[in-house]
Design brief:
It contains 6 helices and 7 strands, in the order E-H-E-E-E-H-E-E-H-E-H-H-H. It is an alpha/beta fold. It holds the Pfam family Pept_tRNA_hydro.
């Protein structure tokens, strides 16, 4: 049987937050939903889910957007993983990342949460840090602005012009990760060191 992947787009629920940097993970899932072909529907895991395949003959995926606030993402992720019988090594969390520049995408397996409360809650709920992360750079806050305030702001007008390309690249990274593995995705999406 083909393996199924659970792809989580992190963010906060409701229209008030939809354009925030913190919701870039859910924006990437909307891009992936267009590729899968379908719409999200509510699920008992307290998430909006969409089941399908990424491309013709591609891997089976469950796209999930938790309906909880970011710092309570673990419950819906764990519940969806249990419901669909998906182990942590087939979970991909797509999230905002302060430590990499805007318009940059990075991938990794496991590791620390870097102060990201959504990831911390997922690690706790899954009982492991060994799940994949697709990290979408949102840059550092300007001046002395608090990081929490920064991620709850919408992207700037200049960033919004480039955002569709960033979301497309992040969706490409997810697709390559589940099709060909982490190394292939990193080789394509991580620039060579000069």
């Amino acid at each position: 049987m083909a393996e199924t992947w659970l792809i989580i787009g992190l963010g906060n629920p409701g229209p008030k937050y939809s354009g925030n940097r913190h919701n870039v993970g859910q924006m990437v899932l909307d891009e992936l939903a267009g590729r899968v072909g379908g719409t999200f529907s509510s699920h008992r895991s307290r998430a909006m889910v969409l089941e399908g395949r990424l491309g013709i003959g591609g891997p089976r995926v469950v796209l999930a957007k938790p309906l909880t606030y970011m710092n309570e993402s673990g419950g819906p992720v764990s519940a969806a993983a249990k419901f669909y019988g998906i182990e942590a090594d087939h979970v991909v969390a797509v999230h905002d990342e302060l430590d990499i520049p805007f318009d940059t995408v990075r991938l990794k397996l496991g590791g620390g949460e870097g102060g990201h409360n959504g990831l911390r809650d997922i690690s706790k709920a899954l009982g492991t840090k060994d799940y994949y992360r697709v990290r979408v750079g949102v840059g550092r806050p300007p001046g002395r602005m608090d990081a929490a305030d920064f991620v709850l702001r919408d992207f700037s007008p200049t960033e919004r012009k480039d955002l569709p390309f960033v979301l497309g690249e992040a969706a490409d990274a997810v697709e390559l990760l589940v099709r060909e593995g982490l190394l292939a995705a990193q080789q394509k999406h991580h620039p060579a060191k000069a």
